[in-house]
Model the fold of this input.
Amino acid sequence: MSEWLAWFIGDWHALLVLLIAGFLPNEIWRLIGLWFGAGVDEGSELLVWVRAVATAILAGVIAQILIEPPGALASVPDWLRYAAVAGGCIVFILTRRSIFAGVVCGELLMLAGKWWLG
Amino acid sequence: MRSVGSTLLTLVLFATYAGIGALAHDTHFSLGWVLASTLFVWAGPAQIILISTLGSGATVVQAAIAVTVSAVRLFPMVVSVLPMLRTPQTKRWHLVLATHFIAVTLWVESFRLLPQVPRRRRIAFVHGLGTGLVLACLAATTIGYGLAANLPALFAAAILLLTPLAFLLSTARNCRELADILALLLGLGLYPLVATFHTGVDILISGITAGSAAYAVHRWQARS
Done:
């Protein structure tokens, strides 16, 4: 039992890292939203700007995952990753914004490309 | 609870978290660690950034900065969802748990589902939806972690590709104004340029620049 628990939890130090670099950075923004969001009008100009910046930051994260892919995704060639995402976007637009169709087509394109490359 | 099962996004989210579980296994984090990250962080991109930066040998401070920057987007999400939950009787602490559940999926689903829910029952609805999503994702994380050892590389790559695809398309779907669409496109285009400078805060620089440029176009268009 204690062996299993040691395997399950691993290193206590890593949990402290999770608290500092994972939990707090996210929760702080949620709580700031809770605390200061009350006075902000939903259609206000400030919010349009904050939403634009946040959208652009998420776009940056997406671009980062595609350009510097984590783990097994690095085994897929650059051009194939970009083509799969571009294909998914085109299908998304053609199907009048169906997320499901876009995701499935992007995935299939990547799998087909990998299969074709062997 | 039925709302949890009926959304396609839940399916995509489930697969994304299986990918996070697999990634955590490959970068030698414990199962308990990655489950705790799903429960407490509850933001897919942030978890992927955290795992990949720590896994590539970055310091805790560098990882914390990268995650903090990516998490700024939670602020406007909270600000736009909370007014839908509030009634005149609502105290701030009633909203703390609902606030924790807010991430891309719940934000998207709130705009879709909340208008059909009577206002006084909306906080309970979000608690139910959030709990269901977190439980499904904890299961997905465990499955991904367990499969990672035997997972063919092709399958693992497909699961990891789900994250950018799903987040890109669900953000695109929620673009309500020209500023949002421009911010998404400019943000995608600008990051690769800024990244060549290796500032350590590339995402922050490209995000603020692209977002502000999109906002400027929005202002200019509103005036003319």
